[in-house]
Design goal:
Length: about 475
């Protein structure tokens, strides 16, 4: 006979120094939940260490560590646990403090048992929904292109946040940044994360077309509109109907096409070249340029009213030299990507090679780095890419700029993780353990720096003087 798997009941831990309260709550809740009991915070922490607890119900006033102290410990060590505090001495100030510390709710005794059961059910449902949403967001990011946008630096984290916020809307997006920074990747991510993901994504590279060809390419043409127009042809606006149109290098369109584009954005309709019949479309526009549109407006080379129509959501992609802390992450990503494409095993990369790559200013930005990594992979002979595999021009310039990074160099055989740790330690020492300045120099967020230091502390890899400071935070 097949075994029937019954769903695991949520675990509720009741912490109260009053035995009658503990057992009374147990009797009320044990029908629907697996109930654990603890007479004080010390016992509660032992139970939490041994078993996964879904909901903590704790008295506020207890001998030893009180309810707020227990709440802080649970929030730090078991953040998924829902915490509800109980007290016979309720006050607004205490309730506010409990909520600030992360409590889900704050109830006064005697507890209304029906209300408590409803509260627990609602809290568990809310937590499950949050988990599902996080999982779905992670799946969308992996599936629809965010995984190709690599970066842990503050500028890139800001870009990711704007993409996630802007994508579900219908707002026009203007992406600005130097060539090679990944503007089309961002446009694709916005499209894939939007409500139009089932519709078409149509890209037009405006700089590659003459003004006459661009107008026909965008708006289509009627039969006989010009020499060679042997049949009616739909333009990119029509092809993008119900989806997203991406206009790359929009700064290169001529004045006449700018006027027509402005009208489309205002009225969502246009005429084909040589036609008089209006065509209505439902599109979301994303535009990109490697030039400063404000400067072009000031020079009279770009219409100000069109600029304002385009610049609803503005995303700026920084050059790679301004986020050099992302280079190790990008190298790892491109090594895996290029190895798979070239049917090669993924090689390691030595710290000296990584130092040279990190020191180089990358005028071609991320695109140049990707091409360089692929070249190193294809031409490399060993199971690790070394400084000898770095192209000569990059190696030469990198060595000139290397003194500032030389403290991060490890002996041969060091791992990428070791190189990263040594770099962080060197910058912390240089900045006299000022975490904010160190994070800025490293090109990462302060939060990421703290996470790294906590990891090193747990593994016993922090120097004593830094470990002492970390222990105080």
């Amino acid at each position: 006979m097949a075994e029937i798997n019954t769903p695991k009941r949520p675990v509720v831990l009741i912490v109260d120094d009053d035995r009658n309260t503990r057992e009374g709550l147990q009797r009320a809740l044990q029908r629907r939940y697996a109930v654990r009991l603890a007479e004080d915070a010390t016992r509660a922490l032992d139970l939490l260490a041994d078993d996964e607890v879904d909901v903590l119900l704790s008295d506020l006033r207890m001998p030893g560590l009180d309810g707020l102290g227990l709440l802080r410990r649970v929030q730090a060590q078991h953040p998924a646990t829902i915490c509800i505090l109980l007290t016979a001495y309720g006050s607004v100030e205490t309730a506010v403090e409990a909520m600030k510390q992360g409590a889900y709710d704050f109830l006064t005794k005697p507890v209304n048992l029906d209300h408590l059961e409803m509260l627990i059910e609602r809290a568990l449902h809310s937590r499950d929904m949050e988990c599902r949403n996080r999982d779905l967001q992670a799946q969308l990011d992996r599936k629809f292109g965010m995984e190709s946008m690599i970066g842990d630096s503050p500028p890139m984290q800001q870009v990711f946040d704007i993409v996630r916020q802007a994508a579900p809307s219908s707002a026009t997006v203007l992406i600005q940044g130097p060539s090679g920074t990944g503007k089309e990747l961002v446009a694709n991510a916005i499209y894939r994360l939007s409500n139009r993901a089932k519709g078409p994504f149509i890209a037009v590279h405006c700089a590659a077309l003459s003004p006459t060809l661009l107008e026909s390419e965008l708006f289509g043409h009627e039969k006989g509109a010009f020499t060679g127009a042997l049949a009616r042809r739909k333009g990119r606006f029509e092809l993008a109907d119900g989806g997203t149109l991406f206009l790359d290098e929009i700064s290169e369109i001529d004045a006449a096409t700018q006027v027509k584009l402005l009208r489309v954005l205002e009225e969502r309709r246009f005429e084909r070249v040589g036609g008089v019949e209006p065509v209505e479309v439902d599109i979301r526009l994303i535009a990109a340029t490697n030039r400063n549109l404000k400067d072009l407006v000031a020079q009279g080379k770009f219409r100000e009213d069109l600029f304002f129509r385009l610049n609803v959501v503005d995303i700026f992609l920084p050059p790679l030299v301004d986020r050099a802390g992302d280079i190790p992450l990008l190298c790892e990503h491109f090594l895996r990507e290029c190895a798979e494409r070239n049917n090669r095993l993924v090689p390691g990369i030595t710290p000296d090679a990584l130092n040279l790559l990190s020191a180089y200013p990358w005028p071609g930005n991320v695109r140049e780095l990707r091409n360089t990594i692929e070249k190193m992979l294809v031409l490399g002979r060993g199971d690790k890419l070394t400084a000898r595999d770095v192209p000569a021009n990059i190696r030469e310039i990198g060595r000139e700029r290397l003194p500032a990074l030389r403290t991060a160099t490890l002996p041969a055989g060091g791992s990428l993780a070791d190189m990263e740790r040594e770099k962080i330690m060197a910058v912390l020492q240089k900045q006299h353990d000022n975490r904010t300045r160190a994070a800025v120099e490293l090109g990462i967020s302060r939060r990421t720096l703290h996470r790294k230091l906590n990891e090193y502390k747990e593994r016993g890899l922090l120097p004593p003087e830094i470990a002492d400071v970390a222990a105080q935070e």
